[in-house]
Write a structure and sequence with these properties.
The complex is a heterodimer of chains A (356) and B (342).
Chain A: H1 41-55, H2 63-75, E1 79-82, H3 89-99, E2 100-101, E3 104-108, H4 115-119, E4 120-125, E5 130-135, E6 142-146, H5 153-156, H6 160-165, E7 167-170, E8 173-176, E9 182-187, H7 200-203, E10 208-211, H8 217-228, E11 245-246, H9 247-258, H10 264-279, E12 283-285, H11 289-305, H12 313-324, E13 329-330, H13 332-336, H14 341-351
Parallel strand pairs in A: 1-9, 1-10, 2-11, 3-6, 6-9
Antiparallel strand pairs in A: 4-5, 7-8, 12-13
Chain B: H1 17-29, H2 33-50, H3 62-72, H4 75-79, H5 81-92, H6 100-109, H7 145-148, H8 150-173, H9 207-210, H10 213-233, H11 251-265, H12 268-283, H13 295-306, H14 310-318, H15 324-341
Helix pairs in contact in B: 1-2, 2-5, 2-6, 3-5, 12-15, 13-14, 14-15
The chains are: A alpha/beta (356), B mainly alpha (342).
Chain lengths: 356, 342
């Protein structure tokens, strides 16, 4: 078992909502609020834009993955990153953690990891002659569950309650997790050796499933150029990454996202889209109602990031594949025919009527 | 109005361009510019679809409509639709009141809804009803309570074991077997006569004769019981059930399936033939070529209409296609020809 807990330089605590102050490393980004009052929605918007730029200092390409990570922060959602080894999945999450003034923990999921190693367990304290609860790595703001499908479903399921209820129950007593709490899990494609596919119940708890693909020629050239000029992926601080957003920004942004309006036509479009996934002949189980609410939340957050106070069907279409692809169970005969969830969703987005 | 009291919008449908245009003008006359802007945008969209500028589909958003229009319209005409799409989003989804100026701009840009050809029938979108799961097997009558009681089976097993033990004990306690017979010369069995009409001599070497009588009787009873049990409880395969025809398959899945079959077949010439026939079917009516025109006339007509090199047109329509890359080139050339001819 390997449990690597990488704490952030300044663990101000999960409840720490103090805004991030000016960094000594350089001028403050536009969205970084001075210490004192809570950040405004505009400052939060600028801070999240700066966050995306900051991650770009370490990760070349994968702009969509960065966008989905930011959206997950705004929606209280979790993200599953899938890709073959060596496409910077872990680096992406480490860069996000470095650019956020939040406590973060990394757990390397291995075949012998036990549920108690993730959630925590009761240990006997000889001094007080009592059993005390020792918190596991899940008690953090940003949990990097690295290679989550290397561990059996028993341990994978240890995160079920944490991800949905944001609490851990030990000995019948619920213990709340800090806010924000986001799980960013990475996994290899399930065709790889020694992997356990995630159970459907757990997949449904991820807001997004993002495919990390191999970079294009230009991006790969830039990656090598960075390495040639001395970039060390193990030392992101040396690469110039610094915290640009904190819990206060995220809280302000979430409040602003909550004010984004959704017209009944757009709600009906989301419903029609999810119902279409259930009635498609190639699908055994379509998107759940949780999937529909996740689609709504992601579309609202995207609308706010795009500077709008209302949601459009374009927002829904943009996030639909990442929100729904892992919630569809295809029929075996369809899979044999080469039908994929992504192709099916593309067809549905091309056929479900949009309210104009 | 509370969240639950919101009226559920009806499934989105659009009518002919003329209807939306008339509705827009009526709303504008009432100074209801929210309605007028929405109806006018619908009229523009339907007008472009009815004129064949855009593919007819209901899944296109306002922004996508403007983006698609920019690929088929002149830049100055397409540029007028971008702000209209943004206004449409803000008014319809954002709840902002439309202004008269926005409506008049869109009305000015609408050169498509007037005198548009009648709409073609739209593809039918039907929701597939969830089929009720079929029972996996016929309903069997419930077992009698006695047979469902595990104590009964335990008692029965106990009785059998006890019976076997008693049998074994009786066998071991039986009188000693008789002393072996004295060594007598084996009885002389006369050789069978060579007369073929006599029946053959049968020996007493059947396996059933060598079994103890209780075991043979028990086996017979077990066989009969098993047969009865199978007749009573086993699944009965009925006659084959015919699947209802025709099978409904979504158009996009049918297309994907056909494409997969074509790809697997590797018959590039056949696939190219299909693409060429479809392309010719679409562009020939607009060429003005005579019906049944030969390849040379077609090539000349296409080259004259599109300005493309006749050699390219010939390669696209009639050259052999040895591999997948050549097929890709032919598809791209056909696409170019269709674009240029239109």
């Amino acid at each position: 078992m390997t449990t690597d807990m990488t704490k952030s330089p300044d663990p101000s605590g999960p409840a720490g909502t103090a805004p991030v102050g000016p960094s000594p490393a350089g001028p403050s980004p536009a969205g970084t609020a001075p210490a004192g009052p809570a950040p405004t929605a505009e400052q939060a918007h600028a801070a999240l834009a700066a966050l995306r730029a900051e991650i770009g200092k370490a990760v070349v390409g994968n702009d969509n993955a960065v966008l989905y990570l930011v959206l997950a922060l705004l929606c209280r959602g979790h993200v599953l990153l899938e890709g073959v080894p060596g496409v910077a999945k872990t680096l992406l999450v480490r860069a996000l953690a470095t650019a956020l003034e939040l406590e973060h923990t990394r757990v390397q999921f291995t075949p012998d990891l036990m549920p108690g190693d993730v959630t925590g367990s009761q240990i006997y304290d000889p001094h007080s002659a009592e059993f005390t609860f020792r918190q596991g790595p899940v008690f953090t703001n940003l949990l990097l569950a690295d290679e989550i499908n290397r561990t059996p479903p028993k341990t994978q399921s240890a995160l079920l309650e944490s991800m949905e209820e944001r609490q851990v129950s030990v000995d019948g007593r619920p213990r709340p997790l800090p806010d924000p709490f986001v799980v960013v899990a990475t996994q290899n494609p399930i065709e790889q050796e020694g992997t356990y596919p995630l159970p459907e119940a757990q997949l449904d708890r991820f807001l997004f499933k993002v495919d990390i693909t191999l970079p294009g020629r230009e991006d790969e050239f830039h990656i090598l150029a960075r390495h040639a000029s001395g970039f060390d992926p193990r030392d992101l601080t040396a690469a110039g990454l610094r915290p640009v957003a904190g819990a206060g920004h995220i809280a302000a942004a979430r409040a602003a996202v909550g004010a984004v309006t959704v017209a009944p036509e757009v709600l009906a479009y989301i419903v029609d889209l999810c119902r279409a996934t259930r009635s498609a002949p190639a699908v055994r189980h379509g998107a759940s109602t949780r999937g529909a609410t996740a689609l709504l939340a992601a579309a609202r957050a995207l609308a706010w990031l795009n500077g709008r106070g209302f949601t459009t069907p374009d927002d829904v279409k943009f996030v639909a594949t990442a929100v729904l692809r892992h919630r569809l169970q295809l029929r075996p005969e369809a899979e044999l025919d080469g039908v994929t969830a992504e192709g099916l969703l593309a067809g549905l987005l091309h056929s479900v009527p949009v309210p104009v | 109005m509370s969240e639950d009291q919101r009226q559920i919008p009806a499934p989105p449908t659009l009518g002919p361009a003329a209807e939306h245009r008339a509705a827009a003008e009526q709303a504008a006359a009432r100074r209801d510019y929210d309605r007028a802007l929405r109806e006018r945008f619908r009229a523009v969209l339907r007008g472009m679809e009815q004129r064949g500028l855009l593919e007819t589909r209901r899944s296109r958003t306002a922004d996508e409509t403007a983006a698609d229009a920019s690929t088929v319209l002149a830049p100055e005409a397409a540029a007028q639709l971008d702000p209209a799409a943004r206004s449409f989003d803000e008014v319809v989804y954002g709840g902002r009141p439309a202004t008269e100026d926005e409506y008049r701009r869109l009305e000015y840009a609408d050169a498509y809804s007037a005198a548009a050809p009648p709409p073609k029938p739209e593809p039918l979108v039907r929701e597939v009803a969830e089929a009720a799961p079929r029972p996996r097997r016929r309903a069997l009558p419930p077992l009698p309570a006695l047979l469902r009681d595990p104590r009964f089976w335990a008692g029965l097993a106990g009785l059998i074991v006890l019976g076997l033990l008693l049998y074994a004990a009786m066998q071991s306690c039986a009188a000693p077997s008789a002393p072996p017979p004295p060594d007598l010369p084996p009885p002389s069995i006369p050789d069978p006569p060579d007369d073929p009409d006599l029946p053959p001599i049968e020996g007493r070497d059947s396996i059933f004769d060598s079994l103890p009588a209780p075991l043979a009787f028990g086996g017979l009873m077990l066989l009969i019981t098993s047969a009865l049990l199978v007749w009573w409880r086993a699944v009965r395969r009925g006659a084959l059930v015919r699947e209802p025809r025709p099978v409904e398959v979504a158009a996009n899945e049918l297309l994907a399936g056909q494409a997969a079959v074509y790809r697997r077949s590797g018959d590039h010439d056949h696939i190219a033939g299909k693409l060429r026939a479809a392309a010719l079917r679409r562009i020939t009516p607009g060429l003005g070529a005579a019906a049944g025109a030969g390849p040379d006339e077609l090539i000349a007509a296409i080259a004259g209409r599109s300005g493309l090199d006749p050699g390219l047109v010939h390669a696209a329509l009639y050259a052999p296609v040895p591999d997948a890359s050549a097929l890709g080139v032919v598809a791209a050339q056909l696409d170019l020809i269709e674009t240029e001819v239109r």
